[in-house]
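Hallway conversation turned thread

IA: we were arguing at lunch whether anyone had actually written out Histone deacetylase complex subunit SAP30 Sin3 binding domain-containing protein end to end. Turns out nobody had. So, for the record, here is the sequence (172 residues) and right after it the structure tokens. Reply here if something looks off.
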Amino acid sequence: MNNGCSTGEEDSRGPSNQFCCLIDEGERCNKVAGNASYSKRIQKIVAQRRLRLHIDDTARHNYICEFHKTMIQCARTKRRRKDSEEDSNGTDSEVPEVDLSQLQVNTLRRYKRHFKLQTRPAPSKSQLAEILMNHFKTISVPEKEVTTFFIYTVKSNGNKLDQKNGLSSEPV
């Protein structure tokens, strides 16, 4: 950078005549870089998928070419499809991430007791939340059945809490 003006490799608007910053199986990629950057999140995906890609330490930018961008996206997609088919028995719904650490410790303990989960004695709240999250992810739910049953219950029984408080919507 010179007097507040950027030049070539340091251009914040994206690469101009730059080459991909990745080393693929020991050799620097010589393809023109696109506007996709090799962020920490992408680096984590590359490590998880065991792709043989590394950033070149001599590169002054972190932009990657379209070839490597597509390679990384395909590796992500293949893994996600495989997991979702196994976990959801063929349905293509994604598992929402639930932050159990937001719950109170007593609630976490009740969950543990309800499902009779084994843990070490007196785990911390974060340890308990992590153990319960691992268990929570293994529970399969027949989504259509549950939704249908929920709607039926709401329409036929009303709200159980209202009935207990004497606020039933049924005519007297």
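OS: looked through it. Residues 100-164 form one domain.
IA: good, adding that to the notes. The chain has two domains: 8-87, 100-164.
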